[in-house]
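for ur thesis appendix - Transport permease protein. copy paste whatever u need, i formatted it the way the template wanted (i think)
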Amino acid sequence: MTTVTDASTVHGSRITWAIVDTWVVARRHLLHLVRRPDELLGTLMIPVMAVAMFGFVFGEAFGVAMDVPGAEYREFLLPGLFALTMAFGIGNTTISVAEDVRGGVLDRMRSLPMSPVAVLAGRALADMILAVVELGILLALGTLFGWQAHLGLGGVVAALGLLVLLRLAFSWVGILLGLLVSGPEAAMKYFALVFPLAMVADTIVPTDLMPGWLSIPAAWNPLSSTVIATRELFGNGVVPATTWVGEHAMTMAVAWPVAIIAVCLPLAMVRLRRLGR
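the 3d part is after this line
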């Protein structure tokens, strides 16, 4: 009985220290961001410019194509831009992890008596905290541009939860890529691959307006599920979903990120153990 109790105590202690170590690593990344706010500014510039370009410059044209007024198109657009911001965060994560690998930071962390999972989970936690800040800024900008949520605080909280979950999944994608690439320069080149992922989705225009051969991968894009689900939760569903994925967007908006994390997290841990070999 004592042995079982001791084992349980040791296990609980390990979990506690893993949580503490994760916060220490996350805090390091957040302090680094405070010293270099241009990274946050660079991430936010893309969706802000997209609001201006697609919402006001091309908004009326897209609205005509969708048979909705320009103001309604902007309501359709904003949830897509929230998800785009979560996707574009992959670039910063990949570059940051690649810099830590090259600078020997991860090797030094691995030499310390800390949880191996915390070395990478701290980065993911920092990304989630940053995602909350980014979404807060974008919600304020969206309100200034005339966007609003129609289904109350509960819908807003649920939608933000799905967006942060998506960012967590993309964070582990970025962590894995950062461990695999040869350096920060290569990571910057891989960032270009995010644009097809971001645009071939239900973000800027509905998949129904895309060519038939393109609408199928766009509908199954993990971004599309989150975008459609958040539109429903915000009450911005201007265009009804017509695909199977769209009709089950809530379920898929959870299933996709969980599946991505289930694949990328263990692969990242395996890659971390092999660094320097």
